[in-house]
Amino acid sequence: MDYLNGDAVDVAAFAHVESGPSASGRLRATPADFRVEEICDVELSGEGEHVWLWVEKTGLTTPQAVERLAAAIGVAARNIGYSGLKDRHAVTRQWLSLTWPIKQALPAWPADDDLRVLEARRHGRKLRRGTHRANRFDIVVRQVDGLDATAFAARVARVRRDGVPNYFGPQRFGHGGRNIELSQALFSGRRLSRGRRSFALSAARSLIFNAVLDARLRAGAWPGPLTGDVFMLAGSHSVFAAADTEESWDSLIARAARGDIEPTGPMPGRRRDGAVSPSDAAAEMENRVLAGFPDFCDGLAQFGVDAERRALRLPLTGLETTVEGDDMRLSFTLSAGAFATSVIRELVRAEDMAGRG
Fold first, then answer.
1. What is the arithmetic mean of pLDDT over 343-354?
2. Mean pLDDT of the residues in the chain
3. Which of 84, 132, 141, 304 has the fewest beta carbons closer than 10 A?
């Protein structure tokens, strides 16, 4: 396990589709080099007791932005909703919402370099977690070196065609990849606060999923399916096992090639009645990896985390790349919950400068 160094996860050691990219550079040299914008399909009515705010934040986590907004307008932070958590070391635009009396004039919103309210519109419902459909990224990698234009063009074409491995990114494993320390502590019996326990459980599940995906890549079993795979319908969380359908294997392969269905990997935890499981070659590979994490698998189940499945492939749309001097700009759109770093790592070896200096 080259990706697990004692009590730290080295995300860079997970397998690439082919060999790693030759080009290298610096990611997030400034927050403005990493821009994220939510794509939300909700049509706001313009009336109602809820106010939806289109905000831009810089150098703040989403909870920090919520706290600052709450303090500025005199409401409790728990009464401000958001759809997704956004990176701190970035310039991000996202929706927030709060309840505000219909007959009361809207407050003066904070307007500083770190947090700006760009738009405020009323709506009949509050914003709930997971409402946005996707995120658009505009990323600049600085001081790019070792770029082979021909090889890079081939990588871009492959990523546009096949997508990228759907790894959990380094954010999931904390600074230096050491959230896995919390997982080890938790499953050895140490008591953790609620927040740290959540980090521990998430890191453990993410590591195991990444390990299965790494094994698939090293075996040449990506992006296509293995016999016995569990598939997820594109754009949903609905899954079915190849063994449980009368559809021919050739048809399943063709549907996977079109992106109608996606092979999945495990998010371990407590198995529910009727849970779908892989068989044949897919089960053999998956079980071999899971056998390397017995304490984590047992611990996740004991803490009541429900087992789930996650797509092994991450498709993306609108990938555009430009090189300007020593800098490279990457723009693309991903479904909500996906990691932009999983796209970047297939195109350029980018050293993340976030939080340094």
1. 94
2. 95
3. 304
Token digits of residue 42: 């909700």
Q: What is the number of structural domains in the chain?
A: 2
Is residue 271 a contact partner of residue 300, using CB atoms and an 8 Å limit? no
Percentages of the chain per state (helix, strand, coil), in multiples of 5: 30, 30, 40
Give the type of residue at 23.
A
pTM, whole model, 2 decimals? 0.93
The amino acid at residue 96 is L
Amino acid at 167: Y
Q: Show the CA angle centred on residue 255, arms to residues 254 and 261, nearest 5°.
A: 145
Is residue 130 classed exposed, middle or buried when 0-12, 13-18 and 19+ CB atoms within 10 A define those classes? exposed
Active site residues: 87
Is pLDDT above 80 for 169? Answer: yes
Residue 76 belongs to domain spanning: 44-132
Nearest 10 degrees: Cα torsion 119, 125, 129, 132: -50
Q: Give the integer Cα–Cα distance in Å for 213 and 171.
A: 18
Where among 82, 108, 132 does a domain terminate? 132
Q: What is the pLDDT of residues 329-343, one digit of tens each?
A: 999 999 999 999 999
pLDDT band at 280 (very low <50, low <70, confident <90, very high): very high
Q: Per-residue pLDDT averaged across 311-332, rounded? A: 97
Q: Please report, for the domain that includes residue 67, its CATH number.
A: 3.30.2350.20
DSSP assigned state of 270: B
Strand, helix or coil at 176? helix
Both 154 and 105 in one domain: the answer is no
Q: Which amino acid is at 60?
A: L
Structure confidence at residue 356 (pLDDT) = 63
Per-residue model confidence (pLDDT) at position 272: 86
Q: For 3-26, what is each residue's pLDDT tens digit?
A: 988 789 999 999 999 889 999 999
Domain containing residue 207: CATH number: 3.30.2340.10
